[in-house]
From TrEMBL:
SUPFAM superfamilies: Aldolase (SSF51569). This is Transaldolase. Keywords: Schiff base. The keyword Metal-binding does not apply. GO terms for biological process: carbohydrate metabolic process. InterPro entries: Aldolase_TIM, TAL/FSA.
Length: 390
């Protein structure tokens, strides 16, 4: 098992690695109450963490930091009758007329059109976000490193044809051993990568060692697995858990804490993107992490809660009331952690340290991704058949 923390007592050292600092904004000159209002919880959170909507289309956040195009996103566009999605619908339809795909062998044609649709939608999204557009890599290739690398090269060529450079792109791989190795290969060529379906610390450590740009642990799915398996120790690195009692440890949030502290201490160029955020309490408890993928429901809840931060009562000449908040994570706190650097992770160690939760969640999540691919592919097969019969 991974043994990352130095122990000084029966308590887990990593719990002391959370930031206790109240980060405050700089003092400002006097502003009358009518010109400066209080900030919502969302406003506060976004001072320290980039909030990314889990579904970009229809998001209330203006110019988000990032967006993702996936088979699930394509399925949503195809199924939608909303005029607001018309440009994206047209982008998918135009992919059916892509000459290079029409010239491909019959067995490869539908997949080629699907890849082109991903690129067309991704190109539109790139105009709507401040940062990079993430493009999912086919989960059916999750254990075939060479094919994943080849697919990224094909997608890059297609993006280049529509004027999108690799600097605007990031490619997302399932955090299998082979997915991480494919990401490592591409990072060595200057191509940004991200891994998701991360449910175990060993996946994150291997990805960080591989130079992956973004690691995406999933809070909600990790927590829910442990809730369904109450007999499983929630924190093997922490104090001994009483089997008869109920642990207060939240395995999902704990995973993000461990991933953040490890990467920031030993691989600071790697960013951490927490997903599976079920509540606004989850979001606030993970403040300071690089990115939070948040649903429109949670975004609305955060926006609806006012705070005193930023409020100007007209009586204070310098600054406003309670300009800051307690931030859960920070680079400084991570550097102080009593966490040890792991030796290079090999495939044997990776598989052994996935753990029951990591192994089961990865397998189930991969199957869901495969199902999404198999649900959208017939749309392109049928469309090609229909167009060829005209």
């Amino acid at each position: 098992m991974l043994n990352l923390y130095k122990r000084t007592s029966s308590s887990r050292v990593s719990l002391t690695c959370r930031s206790k600092t109240n980060f405050t904004a700089k003092a400002t000159t006097y502003q009358p109450p009518s010109s400066k209002t209080s900030a919502s919880e969302l406003d506060l959170l976004q001072r320290y963490t980039d909030v990314v909507p889990d579904v970009f289309l229809g998001s209330s956040i203006e110019k988000p930091k990032a967006a993702t195009v996936s088979y699930s996103v394509l399925s949503g566009i195809v199924a939608s009758e909303s005029l607001g999605l018309r440009p994206y619908e047209n982008a998918i339809l135009s992919a059916l007329n892509f000459d290079k795909c029409r010239a491909a062998p019959d067995a490869e044609r539908a997949q080629c059109h699907l890849n082109k649709a991903m690129v067309n939608v991704g190109a539109l999204l790139s105009q709507e976000v401040q940062g990079k557009v993430c493009t999912d890599i086919d989960a059916r290739l999750a254990n075939e490193e060479g094919k994943m690398v080849s697919l990224v090269q094909q997608l890059l060529d297609m993006y280049k044809e529509v004027g999108i450079s690799k600097e605007k792109l990031i490619f997302r791989f399932p955090a299998t051993w082979h997915g991480i190795q494919a990401a490592k290969h591409l990072e060595s060529e200057g191509i940004s990568t991200q891994v998701f379906l991360v449910f175990s610390l060993v996946q994150a450590v291997a990805a960080a060692q591989a130079g992956v740009s973004v690691i995406q642990p999933n809070v909600g799915r990790t927590r829910e697995w442990y809730n369904k398996h109450p007999g499983v120790i929630r924190d093997p690195l922490g104090p001994r858990q009483d089997a008869a009692g109920q642990s207060s440890v939240d395995p999902g949030r704990l995973l993000v804490e461990q991933v953040y502290n490890y990467t920031k201490k030993f691989h600071p160029k790697t960013k951490v993107m927490a997903s599976g955020i079920r509540t606004k309490e989850d979001a606030m408890a993970l403040s300071g992490v690089d990115y939070l993928v948040v649903s429109s429901k949670v975004i609305a809840e955060l926006s609806a809660v006012p705070t005193a931060a930023g409020y100007n009562d007209g009586l204070q000449a310098m600054g406003s009331v309670d300009e800051g908040m307690d931030v859960a994570f920070s680079l400084e706190a991570a550097q102080r952690c009593g966490i040890q650097m792991m030796p290079s992770i090999d495939k044997k160690t990776f598989n052994a340290d996935l753990g029951i939760a990591g192994e089961e969640l990865l397998r189930q999540s991969l199957q869901q991704q495969v199902d999404q691919a198999e649900q959208i592919l017939p749309y392109f097969s049928k469309s090609i058949t229909a167009s060829s019969s005209l």
